[in-house]
Design brief:
Two copies of one chain form a homodimer.
Chain A (H helix, E strand, L loop, with lengths): L3 E2 L7 E4 L8 E2 L2 E2 L9 E3 L8 E4 L2 E6 L8 E2 L4 E2 L26 E5 L12 E6 L5 H15 L8 E5 L15 H10 L11 E3 L21 E3 L6 H20 L3 E5 L4 E6 L10 H14 L3 E4 L9 H7 L3 H20 L10 H5 L5 H9 L7 E5 L10 E4 L5 H11 L4 E5 L12 E5 L2 H6 L6 E2 L10 H16 L6 H4 L16
Parallel strand pairs in A: 11-12, 11-13, 13-14, 16-17, 16-20, 17-19, 18-19, 20-21, 21-22
Antiparallel strand pairs in A: 1-2, 2-5, 3-4, 5-8, 6-7, 7-9, 10-15
Helix pairs in contact in A: 1-3, 2-9, 4-11, 5-6
């Protein structure tokens, strides 16, 4: 049954839940054209220049007159002005009362009193420079076949290969971003504190930029140029890896409070349903997690840019608001240097899925953060100092946001999708949430959780959110593997490097 | 025996061929300090502000007075001004008489009358977007185990995975670079004209940006969102791959003229010997190849920047000179946007190896292009229209230059190194050339060719160059595998994307 979904009483458009042919009668409306699933229909006659309102906010201004029942698509809207960044109000979010979770513990790998716990027990091999990645790939393959079977408590071995480390302007102002991302990803709780760094010996990203002096030793760092040839370096690397595996193999899951859990939220391949099904249920699950003491990060600067004032209101203090403003201002300038702006974000798939522009995409994207106050704002790849809901200001690109959140310490990611992507991370399990029943039906061996029932009225946001919360804890506790983990569908790590290549 | 090497009679410095202790007597000189291998010693007393000259050019200006026999290191030099880009003379290189090669054919995989031939017979699976890379990695692994053994004439299957395709500003001016790189790499002669593109379905890099309409069909393109789930897409992908393997398996090596060969030259991890051993022998091999009708590309903009006037002189016409100037000017502006300049290029390893600054590195780098005239200049990832020596203006970063040259069509790369790197490419064999005997001794299962004998007087540049020419043809003809190919040490593809991430 085709339904019409209006999100906010102020909205003058609604979306159709199925492909709706011309002439379809929906409530008081007769459709004047065929309207594709998820696309917007005008609820009233609107004149050229009129505000088109969804989520209670202005998506844009009409470029032509439309009648009630008309399709409103991406070609018919002019983007509103960018919300200004000066004098944004803050600290309005504390009053929110969050829902209480039924469960406040999970089974994780403890990393000591101060640290977040792991949801997996992984041997991570960090590289200082791209030159060594061929050797490290062969090493990982040998560890998998020769060593891993002897250490049953270790889930996997992962290579932290990346495109940074040399051939880059290492002293450029923006080089701080990739450098801290690599420095911090080593500390991801899923790697259990075991440091194994493989370098070359002549690279720009020297080991002292990644490790404190007391950790730079033969146990943790191996430079290929110190070894007489390939056979010799592989032998030394295998010996080093085995020592680390022995240490990791002693780790066991224990029952831990949710305050030991740090997860990330991301969306990719969004459609118009993302903002009313997948993302709100993720937001509700996030509220349950935060209310239970966990840390939840959300990201994607270009997808919150048009709602920055809404996020500022939820920042708990001036410090968080100021950091939010400075990160967004940096990103505005970064896009301007490349002669684009936030309107460069939406994809053909987004538009096909009914998202007319970046404002509509942003409003749907922000709801994945739920209603909790924002306790801290991080630059790309920075580590948190507070627990609760955190905005980690990364690019929206899936494979750039993922590694950035991993560097910030997430041990699990929830990934909402409307169009569908087989995205996955080797470093942390990824739960894929679909926005539409059709999506889940089509990709039933790739989608782990379907929030589409919210659009068809089968389920409330709260019900779906509580189900998702349970699944997150199942996966975090190692009782369930998401499909991407099962099939080893892993995207490589693309650390954000806004500084020049040389 | 420690030797002193002066390159040009105008030079007022020379380098020592071994670590040389204070007090060592070399020709008329007594060393006033311990001087590390490859580092410069003053041949005469020089005052603060004096020009330090090597390769007959000014490396920089002294920041302090030095006596004859003193060590001159990177901390003692002020960089000279950047050579201007306006009114550069050109067309002075035609008069050069190149050496004649003893052999003018090789055994390659023919690709028709107009095209370069392959040196390998590979199935390449190109991706439109990073989201599909996890699936394609699993696919490649299944093809290797299930299909490849049935097609003995196919050497390997390679995934053209990359970080581009979505989450990027696809309409930014600089987006042309990654887009054409991906479009062109598909046409690499080592892939035998077989097109296999895997996309998602909602990405920004749509298939029509990569293929002409007549090639967009079910035989060549598969979009994952069109398939009901993972098992189904893998089945379809394996079927598609098998059809391509059947076609590729029919290819056999045939004797071809050198005009069908297109190779690339690159250096990485350079030292002060690179410019007097490895790179000049590569330059001589390049002259033999070009003289025999082959196409040779060299690259690395920041490493020719200080010698741009010398390259301009060798451009055969105004068109090549103008393209050289526009590519370099673009790169100057690109670096300036990131608040750096060409001095950001040298690495700690370069400096340890005796290269004081980018001028010295550039002079040693340029000699790998030999003496042939430059027939054409390409932007990063562009395909050539002429045969002969070509400057392909790519970044100097090894893993960015490699994919760019592959997109431009190289089927083999010669890689000179002083400090040592295990660099390799899955898409084309890479011959690694060491600049020092020590390097080759240390990494005898990674270095394919040693040019160090030039520094110790065991071999002339011409002798080493002729030997290298022979090895290039051996490898191109499939009679020999370089170590990186043997051990499958392959760097991933990092296409140059100077445009913003969104």
């Amino acid at each position: 049954m085709i339904r019409l979904i209006q999100i906010d009483p102020r909205d003058n458009v609604a979306i159709v839940t199925e492909n709706a042919p011309k002439g379809t009668k929906l409530e008081n409306l007769v459709l004047l054209q065929d309207i594709p699933q998820g696309h917007k229909v005008a609820l009233m006659k609107l004149q050229k220049g009129a505000k088109v309102i969804r989520y209670g906010v202005i998506l844009g201004f009409l470029l032509e007159d439309v009648e009630a029942g008309s399709w409103i698509n991406e070609k018919m809207l002019e983007l509103p002005e960018l919300p200004p960044l000066d004098s944004l109000s803050y600290a309005q979010g504390d009053k929110v009362v969050l829902p209480k979770p039924v469960m406040t513990t999970f089974e994780g790998f403890d990393n000591g009193p101060e640290a977040y716990a792991g949801t997996r027990n992984l041997l991570a091999i960090t590289t200082t420079v791209q030159c060594v990645s061929g050797v490290v790939d062969q090493l990982v393959s040998q560890i998998r076949s020769k060593l891993l079977p002897k250490y049953p408590n270790v889930d996997e071995v992962v290579a932290i290969n990346h495109a940074y480390g040399c051939g880059v302007a290492i002293n450029a102002p923006d080089a701080v971003i990739p450098i801290r991302s690599i420095r911090n990803i080593m500390r991801n709780p899923n790697f259990g504190g075991e440091i194994m760094v493989v370098g070359l010996g002549c690279e720009k990203l020297t080991v002292d930029m990644l490790l404190p002096p007391e950790e730079i030793n033969e146990e943790n760092v191996l430079m290929l140029q110190d070894y007489p040839g390939y056979a010799s370096m592989m032998e030394a690397l295998l010996t080093m890896a085995e020592t680390k595996l022995q240490a990791l193999n002693k780790r066991k899951r224990v029952t831990l409070p949710l305050s030991k859990l740090c997860i990330g939220m991301q969306c990719g391949g969004s459609d118009a349903f993302s903002g009313i099904t997948a993302n709100p249920s993720a937001g509700y699950a996030s509220d349950l997690l935060v209310s239970g003491g966990a840390t939840v990060m959300f990201s994607e600067v270009t997808e919150i840019r048009d709602g920055v004032h809404l996020l500022a209101l939820r920042c708990v203090d001036k410090e968080a608001r100021d950091k939010l403003v400075s990160e967004i201002a940096w990103y505005d300038a970064y896009l301007a240097k490349g002669e684009v702006d936030r309107s460069a974000n939406p994809t053909p798939g987004n538009k096909k899925g009914g998202l007319s522009n970046i404002v509509e995409k942003a409003m749907g994207s922000i709801v994945k953060s739920g209603r909790a106050p924002i306790v801290e704002v991080l630059g790309p790849g920075e580590r948190p100092t507070k627990k609760g809901l955190i905005f980690a200001a990364t690019p929206a690109s899936d494979i750039v946001c993922g590694p950035s959140q991993l560097a910030s310490g997430i041990t699990l990611q929830v990934f909402m999708t409307g169009r569908g992507t087989p995205y996955g991370l080797a470093e942390a399990p990824v739960i894929k949430v679909s926005s539409r029943n059709d999506m889940q039906k089509q990709w039933n061996d790739l989608i782990d959780f379907n929030a589409g029932g919210i659009a068809t009225g089968e389920e409330s946001v709260e019900e779906a959110g509580a189900r998702l919360f349970n699944l997150i804890l199942e996966v975090a506790s190692g009782r369930k593997k998401p499909y991407a983990e099962e099939f080893k569908l892993n995207n490589f790590l693309c650390f954000f490097n806004p500084a020049p290549i040389t």
